[in-house]
Specification:
By secondary structure, the chain is mainly alpha-helical. It is built from 8 helices and no strands. The longest helix is centred in the N-terminal third of the chain and has 21 residues. It is globular.
Length: about 160
């Protein structure tokens, strides 16, 4: 239990974060791109969801929520494609984010939690802020899934 508590709460030192970045071959430009993708996806979810707090409240069931997520996902991929940045529409990255957002956004009843996703991902992707090993593990999962599903590997910069 003590190890788990440390894993989710103990800050990782700046030197250890630098070592972690090097060890995992993290390209900071790619990480910024993946953050922009997630941030854009969240923006679309927030501004287009009819079951949310946008002034219009329609009863949505889980199938409607998945359709909304799929539309937001496709639209985000399309928007990046317009900038010549191509992501696979399906894959581990899609499954990860769909499952994550179903639990933390669509099924969430606490408004403060539901609308804190921008802040949450800001902290996960910001290596200059305090990070825990749990944060870094989530970041590497997102990074590797997005990297695997970038078409043509346009960002071969390391």
């Amino acid at each position: 239990m003590e190890n788990f508590f440390s894993y989710i709460s103990k800050p990782v030192s700046v030197d250890d974060i630098k070592l972690w970045v090097d060890t995992n071959n993290i390209c900071l430009l790619k990480m910024e791109l993946y953050y922009d993708f997630v941030d854009s996806l969240i923006d679309l979810m927030y501004t287009t969801y009819l079951g949310g707090e946008n002034g219009v409240k329609i009863n949505m069931d889980i199938e409607d929520d998945i359709k909304h997520f799929d539309w937001c996902w496709s639209k985000t991929i399309e928007n990046f494609r317009k900038e010549s940045i191509n992501f696979e529409p399906e894959g581990e990255h899609y499954e990860f984010f769909k499952n994550f957002f179903i639990e933390t956004y669509y099924k969430q009843t606490l408004s403060d939690v539901k609308y804190s996703l921008h802040h949450f991902f800001d902290e996960i992707f910001n290596l200059d802020s305090t990070s825990t090993m749990s944060d870094l593990d989530l970041l590497i999962t997102i990074y590797k899934n997005m990297e695997k599903n970038t078409i043509n590997n346009l960002l071969s910069v390391s």
